[in-house]
């Protein structure tokens, strides 16, 4: 897999000058520095609550109650570890994951990794297209094909805000994530879930492994939670901060970026957990065990909970989820293409290409098969993401474990063991998910 040419010796010599845009105040206190580093974590976190997560969380809650809440927790802990490695790679080397792969691996291997990364981004965009179209249908009654077509116009919105600076994008994403958070806080209040049952759901149970149906959904939740494109994205956008490039400055940057990332992913855990808890409280506890579709969940919420705003908040959060994920998907696409190929496409062209790849299958399926077909396509997009994950995780763990590449910031022995263990678990579970899906 590694090139026959030894690239380890010149890895750092090829580093470009990092053009940072947000100043980190020297000699400032803890909170001022944290505020300077805050932002990239939120952009990463929205990828963990995109519409692709909703279907698996809803099905898990409606079929098995609160039991699979522990799987969401474990998935988020995996995500926190992997995102820490991604930001550490970016800060310590000045290279994002795509650039590191291009520098270290042979050209054929780099091209394969690039293609796989592009497939993952297209699958992510497909989930965003379908989720946004479903939300528009639920909120405004737009037919699904029309909703899919309308998602083309978010290209113009993304481009407009990209030109106004990185902080603007971070602020928009923060606002959308805040809206999603408020919507699900309301849902938690009106659904009145059992606190003791939620606490019990956080404890791992052997039944999750021994019950084939539960295991299948558990792996689906894992595959929908940890996103490969987020590893490329985080390793790049963390470099938008202007910090000291010596070891002391890098160590401080890694600390504050990790706090930002971990806190943001904790919010993502609350939102993902809330979706499952809502499904458990509203559907499972009332005998609706087969709700596995976003549209069905929307139509059942108001009658079951007896409030008129539950379904509206649900659909509004879904729309905000799709739009926030669109912003980060665009950035990830640009980072991957420029990192692997050194090709700088104009943002509007890159966005249109990615969105066109997602719109075509979504439009065809929505026109021919309607709601049920788009729901199945949404699940299929998550299977694709699961298959691509290992090809981003393994290089990331390898690079961050190498002293030649990372210097004094290489993973410790304990972190190496933990990182490779998580990688093997992810690869094993995703291989099982593929096998079960095909068979």
Automatic annotation (TrEMBL):
The keyword Cell wall biogenesis/degradation does not apply. One of its GO terms (cellular component) is plasma membrane. Its main location: membrane. InterPro entries: NRAMP_fam. GO terms for molecular function: cadmium ion transmembrane transporter activity; manganese ion transmembrane transporter activity; metal ion binding; symporter activity. It is a multi-pass membrane protein. Keywords: Cell membrane, Ion transport, Membrane, Symport, Transmembrane, Transmembrane helix, Transport. The keyword Cell inner membrane does not apply. The chain crosses the membrane at residues 64-82, 142-161, 168-189, 214-233, 254-283, 303-320, 352-370, 382-401, 413-435. It comes from the Bacteria. It is found in: Cell membrane; Membrane. Belongs to the NRAMP family. NCBIfam families: nramp (TIGR01197), Nramp_1 (NF037982), PRK00701.1 (NF001923). HAMAP family: NRAMP. This is Divalent metal cation transporter MntH.
